[in-house]
Amino acid sequence: MPRSTNSVSSRKRRKKIIKLAKGFYGSRNRIYTVAKNAVEKSLFYSYSGRKKRKRDFRSLWIRRINAGVRIYGKSYSDFINKLLKKNIKINRKVLSDISTNDSTNLKKLVEYIYS
Predict the structure, then answer these.
(1) What are the boundaries of each domain within the chain?
(2) Secondary structure string (H, E, C) spanning 18-71
(3) Among 34, 66, 69, 113, which is most buried by a count of CB atoms within 10 Å?
(4) Minimal CA–CA distance to 32: which of 19, 42, 45?
(5) What are 5-28's pLDDT values in tens digits?
(6) What is the pLDDT of residue 3?
(7) Residues in Cβ contact with 24 at an 8 Å cutoff, skipping those fewer than 6 apart
(8) Nearest to 34, CA basis, from 48, 24, 45, 49
(9) Any residues with CB less than 8 A from the CB of 76 and at least 6 apart, and which?
């Protein structure tokens, strides 16, 4: 029986990888074997990058809250602890926005918590 190569599917599979490698530097966007490795690595980085972005934003929010609260002589950890004890449920993203854009409301919040 003659060997069947099924070139249609093979070409389709290779073109898919080359299309994903569009914009890569040098032979990484032209040569299939090099492009395949580059695409696999880039897909892994994009997956882990989506996880890392969440960590980065949370740490940014914490830094902003800390900077906003330190103006009033308080620390971030003490501030969050008092929020939890007073049963105020505001997430860090909103607190960060308040501390950067609305200092009057942050002052009122700090005064309420520490009173």
Answers:
(1) 7-113
(2) HHHCCCCCHHHHCCHHHHHHHHHHHHHHHHHHHHHHHHHHHHHHHHHHHHHHHC
(3) 69
(4) 19
(5) 888 988 999 999 999 999 999 999
(6) 80
(7) 35, 38, 42
(8) 24
(9) 62, 65, 66, 69, 70
Residue numbers of the chain with a pLDDT score lower than 70: none
- Cβ–Cβ contacts within 10 Å for residue 30, how many? 11
Position 2 scores a pLDDT of: 78
Q: b or e along 61-100 (b: 16 or more beta carbons within 10 Å of the residue's beta carbon)? A: bbebbbebbeeeebebeebbebeeeeeeeeebeebbebbe
Pairs from 54-57 (Cβ < 8 Å, separation ≥ 24):
57/93
Residue 2 CA to chain centroid, in angstroms?
A: 52
Which CATH architecture best describes the domain 7-113? Orthogonal Bundle (1.10)
